[in-house]
Specification:
The protein has 133 residues and is an alpha+beta fold. Helices cover 23% and strands 41% of the residues. The chain contains 3 helices and 6 strands, in the order βααβββββα. Strands 1, 2, 3, 4, 5 and 6 form a 6-stranded antiparallel β-sheet that branches. The mean pLDDT is 96.
């Protein structure tokens, strides 16, 4: 996998369940936050685009939970990007920082809504162009 962006995060205690591992839903927060940071690194604001009527929305997700993260684990969230038709497909994986153990693997398909209608956003097209082969 050729990752184009990564960020480090720390598991917070309230993200863990009674078993002491990260609750499954929190992985979705982690990868969403990673996508938003990626956008920001490219000079785009997810909220700013929304204010202009441009919304990238999740159309489909495939998730695989591999090795659980625990409280205070540091982890690395990485992403890769490709385009399929009107969909942007993000491959997003999470690794435990200490040993690079794969903890979570996902494929997230996004589409753009322009003023509520399926469309192609010039803003997304322009900033993603260097990363899409």
């Amino acid at each position: 996998m050729e990752y184009i962006f990564e960020t480090r995060m720390l598991v917070r205690d309230y993200e863990c369940d009674i078993q002491g591992i990260v609750n499954n839903a929190n992985y979705l927060h982690y990868i969403e936050h990673t996508r938003h940071l990626f956008l920001r690194s490219l000079g785009l604001s997810f909220a700013g685009l929304h204010e202009r009527g441009i919304d990238a929305v999740v159309a489909r997700m495939e998730l695989q939970y591999k090795t659980p993260l625990k409280c205070e684990d540091e982890f690395i969230s990485r992403l890769a990007l490709r385009k399929e038709g009107v969909k942007y497909v993000f491959s997003q994986d999470i690794f435990r920082a200490g040993d690079e153990k794969l903890c979570f693997k996902s494929k997230v398909e996004l589409v753009c809504l322009i003023d509520g209608k399926l469309g192609v956003s010039e803003e997304y097209e322009n900033v993603f162009k260097p990363y899409i082969k």
